[in-house]
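assembly run, all chains below
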Amino acid sequence: MSCTPWLLVPLCWIAFAQAPAQAAERFELVDGDHVVLLGNTLIEREQRYGYWEALLTLRYPHRRIQFRNLGWSGDTVWGDARAGFGSAADGFRQLKEHVLALQPSVIIIGYGLNESFAGEAGLPRFREGLRVLLDALAPSKARTVLLSPLSQEDLGRPLPDPAKHNQDLRRYRAALRAAAQERGLDFIDFDALLGDGAKSNPPAPLTDNGIHLTAFGYWRTGAALERGLGLTPLPWHYEIDLEGKPRSAEFKITAKALPLPPLPADAPRSASAGSDPSLLRVRGLAPGTYQLKIDGQPVALATQAEWNAGVHLMRGPEWDQVERLRQTIVEKNRLYFYRWRPQNETYLFGFRKHEQGQNAREIPQFDPLVAEREEEIARLRIPVTHKYELVRTDEKIR
Amino acid sequence: MSNRISSSFSRSIWSAAARGRFRWVHFPKTQSGLEPPHSIIWTLVLLVVLAGAGSVYGQRDLTQIPDPDPEIERRSFQVADGFEVNLFAADPLLAKPIQMNFDPAGRLWVATSEVYPQIKPGQKANDKIIILEDRHQTGRADQTTVFADGLLIPTGVEPGDGGAYVANSTDLLHLADTKGTGRADRRRIVLSGFGTEDTHHIIHTLRWGPDGMLYFNQSTYIHSHIETPHGVRRLGGGGIWQFRPETMQLEVFLHGLINPWGHHFDRWGQSFATDGAGGEGINYVLPGASYAWTPGASRILHGLNPGSPKHCGAEILSGRHLPEEWQGNILTNDFRGHRVCRFVLREDGAGFAAQEKPELIKTNHPAFRPVDIKMGPDGAIYIADWYNPIIQHGEVDFRDPRRDLTHGRIWRVTAKGRPLVPRPELVGATTEKLLQALTAPEDWTRQQAKRVLKERGAKVLPALAAWVQTLNRVDRDYEHQLLEALWTYQALDVAEPTLLNTLLHAHDARARAAAMRVLKAWHTRLPNATELFAAGVVDEHPRVRLEAIRALGEIPDAHAMTLALRAIDRPMDLYLEYALWLTARELEPEWMPALQKGRLDFAGNTRHLLFALQAVATGEGVKPLAELIQSGRIPKESLESVFALLAAVGGREELRLVLEHVLRMGKGQAGQQTALLAALEQAGRQRNVRPAGELNRIAKFLTAENEPLRAAAVRLVGVWRLESFRPQLLGYARADQTSDLLRRAAFDGLTQLGGPASREVFNQLAGPPHPPELRQLAIAALATTNVESAAPRAAEFLTEIRGDTDPTEVVTAFLQRKGGAAALAKALTNRRIAADVAKIGVRVVRASGQEMPALVEAMTNAGGLTGGPRTLTAKEIEELATEVAQRGNAVRGETIFRRKDLACLKCHSIAGAGGQVGPDLISIGAAAPVDYLIESILLPNKIIKENYHSLIVATRDGRVFTGIKVRETESELILRDGEDREVTVPIKAIEEKTTGGSLMPEGLADALTRAELVDLVRFLSELGKVGPLAVSKSRLIRRWQVLEPTPAARQALEGNRWSAVDADGALVWSPAYATVAGVLPRDALLPLRNHSGEIATIRCHLQASSPGKVRLRLNSAEGLELRLDRTPVEMTGEVLLDLAPGIHRLTFTINLTQRRDGLRCELDDVPGSAAQVQIVTGK
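ok done. output:
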């Protein structure tokens, strides 16, 4: 570490978040919460990307919250995709039993897309199915959140023109909203929440086929989900006031919470517009260009004026940590997937178990592996103190 | 020392072998090529002893492991004349190849999995897609790239769209290398929601179609639920998916097949599939049709080669490198029998026929497991070899240390002395060059050129249009070139009506058929599509008609049905019939309401209306059918089937019509009358519907001369509760002269009539002094009314009889009632029964698939039996296996296998001939190790072949059914019971379904001496191996029916009118089967004495799908007379038969005084004849 004569070390660490405390929020996850995510592909694929779960995890760095993703592609409020060798009624029974067995305190439900292909004529049946589903899950007494299906994006031909389907989707969305209102449940209207310009100007599609979110889609809708739950965005904003116009600075920050995960690699160029990146303001530097290093790792280069106004940070040890957190969540979900939807079920548990039933004992062996990942998540969600250094690069060059 | 070796020990041995630290001597090829690897056994024994483990269990594991040196494997190949094999790639470059496909650059992409069959806790899913390149064109891969890893059991890969589509368990992924590093850096989930209930069956067999669509398959047990922007697509069970990635349109192209691991298109776009779990060889794919095991299907299509072993992979051959006679052949792999098989495809009406030819490769190398086969850019044939000493199926433990996880090979087969095809340069070629490549003789080149054109997108359209204009109209391939252009438009998803129209009017029917399928894809974009289909329906070629019929199923309009039905004004065949049936069902929501509202009358054409109504076979269609009957408009030849349908689905009024019809029918129609009465009986039993009107008229038949007809009427009396006829039934039940058939019918009728009167008579007949057969029936009848009160009578009976009376009937009756086994067990307490009676009783229980330990124990105690069936320790099995190898005699073994008392053939077939209860044993020896065979005979329940566990079904009325599930529709479950009968259980009546054990009873081998067991196992172990017991590819008649020497038969023969008698169903034919070599032995014949001495009568059946001449070759004509159907045929050693379409009966009368030999009968083609004839197999 360089220790130059003009170095001034004014402050040990200064950190204050601009976000208000979470106590006043309408929706809050508390220590020990069990969150079950239930639905179709919208839910199922979330576990492959983990952005929603990461966001809700990092928000509460000191709370242990367990997430279980029970999404299933092609599923409906009737449990169609879970029927296996049986009927939809068997699928529904399986759905209900599985959710209740997890003793959820929060259930986030994402249905409606698949049902909506039945059009207006299918609405009464959907409403009834939704009612039956919510009644079936009611014994859990969990706080329940209904997600709206996303509108089908128009990605141009040859993919289908979504205009007609979107009319149907509006009807199904209204049915979901009505059910939520009637029961006093949270309702997340992605369409309303995303109509904020994030998808336009220039357009940054959230899907690659009109209906299924990409990694960026999950990253982007994660923020919408938070807002929809009435949660104030938790920006990673820090301001440092220096005295005496120093030409370098060194300080430590222990963030209240990790920053948002970095944009996924598949994000469109225009994607950051409208998002809420992390911001570091350093006031009181002497004029010049400064490089920021965090724990010795160069992460940004900006002029004194720019530091004064605030620089958006997108990488560095904290972003590495949040990315590791997200990947660990994905890994945990993968292991849990092997646990609850193991391959070869027919042989391990089904009607051919006389052949491989002896290997069914392996499946519970995923439990400790899931628990291990959860320990890691518990460690990774807590921000650690990092050393920040600002060094004038123009002087160095001279 | 423990008998069990620890798995870690065997694994370490195995890894040592895998690394080649031990060089084991390869077993020497003896003359027969059948000797087991003694040297390996001894090396291993030594090894184990040295290691101090001394475990026989471990040895048994290890005897199966050959030296992994690829050269040893290669040298073991017996290759078809004119071909040679070289190693293209091998471990460690690739391990466990599953599927492979070439890209347009000629690189071979291979999906590989070491995680298969099941990820272990703590294991990282790190399966790979690798790319093999032969950069220097030496015929060997000289570069291997790991394109992607981190995958979970990728079962398919198809390069395209800047990367590759990969089947990855629940997902279809697209992996792309966007940075040109050779490694995938972008992973996109294209589709998700594929089922993984069985990793043998997860999505696989990715293949671009000539139409630019991606086809991929899934197999039975898999339930997929896929979201697309067009809606959700679901498929439960096997099938082939059709997918257009850029539009996300996903459809089901074929339903069913059990494990369709092979799919390819011929030069004209027709599809063929093979089945890695089915036994019907090559399957011609009729779009939208259902095949074996489609859940809920009420009607399925069959493969072209019933009685085949399982096949994996499929490739249709083409190109200049291969000899002329191999062009258009389809190759597939018998992965269990270590063979690469060859079939010749031929047109057969609307469909195709496939005939097996000698193999491309066969070997006894135990680890050669060909699973995929593809042609390459050089015109050679490439074969993916999963390389494994055991087939990794479900019955082998997932963690069995013998599962090879590290090896794999790609073999390359070339024709000796023929030049290779110059590798086409496609990737960087100009569009003009690519278009030129569409005229190449190699399917590979044309297909890959089309891929490149497609990926270039719409910008190639002007050049494509210009190219079509330059084509030479007199070129013999002109129309095929146009078709390639049309497919290119289809791949680009651009409708081109002019070119389509030209092809719809092509001279070559194959081009017209292909164009019709393209029209189906574009029909919404073309204003005159319906007219064009209408023309296709009456095209002169059946396959064009077939495509048009299927296409009309897409048009949601009653008029489409009217058009499709015009097809029946032309000759129909099996496939056309099925296609029209399917279309009629698909369009039912359109035409049925219109018909009912009187808005549609199929232009007054009764046959058309009739076909549609019979196709849907629903209650809605019954009223119009009844009207047709009453107006007398039903053609005479359709009457029987119409009445059968009315009986099957009609209400009271319709059943009345059926009954009246039966009453009106004249003499000589007893067979049909019996069948219709049976249909009425079914309606009563299963749907609880009886005809309206006067039922007592049935009395007419209670005294019919024809016995089956009389019996049918007797059963109906019961089902219809016609109390007034009870005395007649009682008479039949009691009379001494009554035949077995009639007596059973009488008991059944009385049971149905029920009431105290029935019980009283049963009770009376259940005891002495009545003969045992009568008592058994009476006790069984009692058991159906009340097991508690029947049980003491049964126990009494079992106590009284000796070992020479077979008590099966009584025991079975109790097993078929809920609580029956328990009641019988209780009644047997403190009783003594003959040991032999107890033995048979125990065997009956075990063969029921139900576990009834209390009853088994009760019978064991009552019979004073000691111990259970013969079991062996691992050491004894090991010794026995050695003895099988050293002293077993397969010829003697076959005689034992055929013995009536062992009843092997009652349940098992070989090459399709034999019972259908158990698995076909055609290639069991090649597929199963000797220890497995021994255990399977001695302990049938230990390892049950997949799909052969029984299903135990309890119904609400207290009955219990056991059997192997044959199929299940929405309303019925069909089981095959231990007697090889299909039993139908209405779904509504089912209370509970549970899985039972094997239907093969334990202790079957108890009657064998050790030497006999050794011979039997030797016989089984040779089946399917290269050698004399490999099942011949000659078309031998293996399944015969022998006329039982009953009084009716004697009478009929005396009057030389048995043919007519047979039509009335009064003759009894029992099955008999040829030996593996194809001879029906003389001792299988049943002699009957008539005026000319001892004669026997046997028959077999041939099904002609395309008419014409075929040849029958006999080992000798001595003492034979032959009738084709009813016409005598002049006998020589070679008989020429001219067959019309349909099923034909060949009846041989054998003069046993003159003839000493058995009969070997082979079917052969006649040069120039278009006939396609299949031998009817089965029971």
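Confidence is low (pLDDT under 50) at residues 1-62 of chain B.

The first strand of chain B starts at residue 78 and ends at 79.

not gonna interpret more than that til we talk
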